[in-house]
Amino acid sequence: MKDSNLRPFFEPQGVALVGARRSPGFGYGIPVVMKHLGWGNRLRLVNPSGGTLHGLPLYKRVADIPGRVDLAVIIVPARAVPEVLTEVAARGIRHAIIESAGFAEVGEKGLKLQDRSRRVAQKHGIRVIGPNCVGVVNTANRFTTVEILDEALAPGPTSIIAQSGVFGTIMLDMLYQYRLHISKAVTLGNRMDVNECDALAFLKSDTNTRVIMMYLEGAADGVRLRDTLAEVTRDKPVLVLKSGRTEAGRSATASHTGSLSGENKIYDAVFAQTGTVRASTLEELVEMARVFSTQTRPPGNRLGIVTSSGSLGVMATDTAISSGLSLPSLSRHTVGRVREGAPGWMNVRNPLDVGPSGQYGEALAALLEDPGVDMVLAITVVPFVVFKEIGRQGLPGTSYFGDIASIQELAPRKPLVVCAVGNNDFVSQMREASGPEVPVFISPEPAVRALAALYRYWAWRGEV
Where does CATH 3.40.50.261 sit in the chain? Predict the structure, then answer.
């Protein structure tokens, strides 16, 4: 496996946008975003009509653009792409992102056009992302070839590989709201050249990436994907949402990015062999990424649960056992520590249901410090009218459950996740109390499944 010479896609010295336009569309909006993000002096716009756009000159031909340019973003009608690639090559540009659609995804005619474009690129040694994609994002230097919110550009440790361009854009629009921040994103589209294996190899060597999320419709090369995943997952977790589980889904895949999605059981086997974590839904992919990007390697599979609701503790227990985790008995020291301030009705065991005892913070600290507990789920539940009354009395709402972020520092080497169930304002305050390094879920089952996935990954690596 090698780093496939993708760095200029993410760190270009200069960018030629071929297909800039004065009417609404990618060719109109992307220059606005790039200029806003500080790339205006490295951006060259190309349109045969000439003139200006957004205060930048429009060059009539690729050959006319001045200065150093090593990346072309191509947004022209599909039929014009082979000719544009030839012009790009003549200008000395060896990396191109083709955002245009109308290729293999539309049928035989489009497939022939894609093959023709591929031959032109190969002849001139041009690496290509796309077609039928939205390109890349690099938060470290605020470079993007897609319209994106400023909030989504906060740097983080997670990178995205998405076969679908719009899927990648949607992920960027939503993830920051979950406190999940991105290092890099690449949307592959029809994978005329650069595919998921190239992207995985590049992100393996990227020092800003700790966790890789991937949306995959089908493998470009199944054997190479298996071998690449086996290499990457030894260093970094790879979380995959693989679509096309059903015959109807596989048919939809072919009309979306022109992919053959393959047999579902084969992918399950590849992922299991390579330590790749498979998500069953988009929600699960995001939830697992939140845990993998913030939590450390667990010492084992022993889960401690502290809850203010017995029923939610039971739900979490059922999911833990079915997911391969265990619920150990609490140590004698932990039991004594919790009982010291607990009312007589409180049953001190795992799950530890503290109810309205006022002992939540102490119980959470005791579980985290218990040597027989490897990871902790903290379930916070209280009637919202009670929570509001605490605030009216001048006390911080979080006083009911303790300063979770500070308590977590007692055992920083143990994974901790929080489940806050109830009113949106309550959940928001629990997120504030938990801090940026403790993910907050809104139901117990996905929280437990994410912890179980974290354990299984490190167990596959042989490090627990």
Answer: 136-294, 303-460
Assign domain 136-294 to its CATH architecture.
Answer: 3-Layer(aba) Sandwich (3.40)
SS3 46: strand
CB 376 within 8 A of CB 330: no
pLDDT of residue 251: 54
Q: Which residues pair with 380 in a beta bridge?
A: 420
pLDDT at position 449, please? Answer: 97
DSSP state, residue 104: G
- Residue 12: CB atoms within 10 A of its CB come to 25
Instruction: Name the class of domain 7-129.
Output: alpha beta
- What is Dmax (Cα atoms) for the chain? 83
Among 3.40.50.261, 3.40.190.10, 3.40.50.300, 3.40.50.9100, name the CATH number for the domain at 303-460.
Answer: 3.40.50.261
Q: Alpha-carbon distance 450 to 216, whole Å?
A: 20
Q: Give dist(CA 337, CA 332) in Å, integer.
A: 8
Q: Which pLDDT tens digit goes with each residue over 87-136?
A: 999 999 999 999 999 999 999 999 999 999 999 999 999 999 999 999 99
Tally the residues of the chain.
464
With beta carbons less than 8 A apart as the criterion, state whether 243 and 216 touch.
yes
- The SS3 assignment for 257 reads helix
Rounded CA separation 289/305 (Å):
21
Positions of the chain with pLDDT lower than 50, given as ranges: 3, 249-250, 253-257, 260
In the chain, where does the domain assigned CATH 3.40.50.720 lie?
A: 7-129
Residue 316 burial (CB < 10 Å; 0-12/13-18/19+)? buried
Question: What is 282-329 written as a DSSP string?
Answer: HHHHHHHHHHHHHPPPPSSSBEEEEES-HHHHHHHHHHHHHTT-B-PP
